[in-house]
Specification:
single chain, about 325 residues, alpha/beta, Nucleotidyltransferase, domain 5, 2 domains, 5-stranded mixed β-sheet, 10 helices, 10 strands, about 45% helix, about 20% strand
Length: about 325
């Protein structure tokens, strides 16, 4: 069946059509209207501006997605929309548009959890992936570890207690003068630095837990930068990027190792915007090879927010019998 997907949880407006079934997981179209250049001026996403930009883009990208896929609304079996979590104003644009599209054309409407949608990106790039598996979602707003029991049943076994890894990358990148968003620039710059140059705390919390805390790592890095600047010395950006990246990657690998041993899964899925980080990909590849575990990560173009992953997740929500009506609302959490 063809599933239309709508994503507007943050600063990407995206519409997509995917074909899903017993033996098919295919992207027919995946249109993304990015707001990166708009928000770069402010060093981060401004929610009100993001919401207005979604309103301006949503109709046009929907037409493009349907045209590129070569389908009409009558061919669509379900409309899937990100309903939570995210920026509430941004989410409401997508939810309201999807409700109108589904209602006007008599198409079933299904709500999708943004986190589960990130995991579903792996189904589109790895069509033979089946549940159960261990999933690590690392993005600008989330850093969580899930035991994925079925396509719609996720059990969170670890998470960040404060900031997310992606937000931490962006913050430190901005402080050392890198363009927004800082994640990609930090990834590249880290290749030029010494990962042992700056001693930083691990975001992996001590004790019997799989949780993270990135606020202390950010504070320690900011304190180091400020101390150096107070001495009249501009700290080496490449060494900061390398040390900061090493701290985050090491913590995630440590947690992945513990989780895999604890629950005995034979497949690890990495997803979310930070899954595009080359250092994290390499480190988890090495870990999985050592443990004899299959490592699955979507291509970089499917790691960030996009509607194809929403449509893929929506297919399984639809198959589980969940339907929404025009009372569907968005939720920030």
């Amino acid at each position: 069946m063809f599933v239309f997907g709508m994503e507007s949880s943050c600063d990407e407006t995206s519409a997509a059509v995917v074909e899903m079934g017993e033996s098919v997981r295919r992207i027919c179209s995946n249109i993304i209207a990015s707001q990166t250049e708009t928000h770069r001026l402010y060093g981060g996403v401004v929610p009100e501006i993001a919401s207005r930009a979604h309103i301006e883009a949503v109709s046009g990208i929907t037409r493009r997605a349907l045209d590129e896929a070569g389908v009409s609304p009558g061919d669509i079996g379900a409309v899937a929309v990100t309903a939570r979590p995210g920026l509430i104003g941004a989410l409401l644009v997508g939810v309201c548009f999807a409700k109108a599209l589904a209602y006007a054309n008599g198409i079933p409407l299904v709500p999708v959890d943004h986190i589960k949608a990130h995991a579903a990106a792996a189904y589109l790039s790895h069509p033979h992936l089946v549940t159960p598996y261990l999933c690590i979602v690392v993005s600008g707003g989330h850093t969580s570890i899930y035991k994925v029991i079925s396509y719609t049943d996720f059990e969170e076994i670890g998470c960040t207690r404060d900031d997310a890894a992606g937000e931490a990358f962006d913050k430190i990148g901005r402080v050392i003068g890198l363009p927004y968003p800082g994640g990609a620039a930090m990834d590249a710059l880290a290749n030029e630095g010494n990962p042992d140059a700056v001693e930083l705390p691990s975001p992996a919390l001590a004790g019997d837990t799989l949780d993270f805390s990135f606020s202390g790592l950010k504070t320690a890095t900011l304190n180091y930068i400020n101390r150096e600047r107070q001495r009249g010395v501009e700290p080496p950006r490449a060494d900061i990027a390398a040390s900061f990246t090493h701290a985050i990657v090491s913590a995630i690998v440590q947690r992945a190792d513990s989780a895999l041993r604890m629950i005995g899964m034979k497949t690890l899925v990495l997803c979310g915007g930070v899954a595009a980080n080359s250092h994290l990909r390499r480190a988890l590849t090495v870990l999985c090879e050592r443990l004899g575990v299959a490592f699955v990560v979507p291509p970089t173009e499917l790691c960030g927010d996009n509607a194809a992953m929403v449509a893929a997740a929506g297919y399984y929500v639809y198959q589980s019998g969940v339907r929404a009506d025009t009372s569907l609302n968005a939720s920030a959490i």
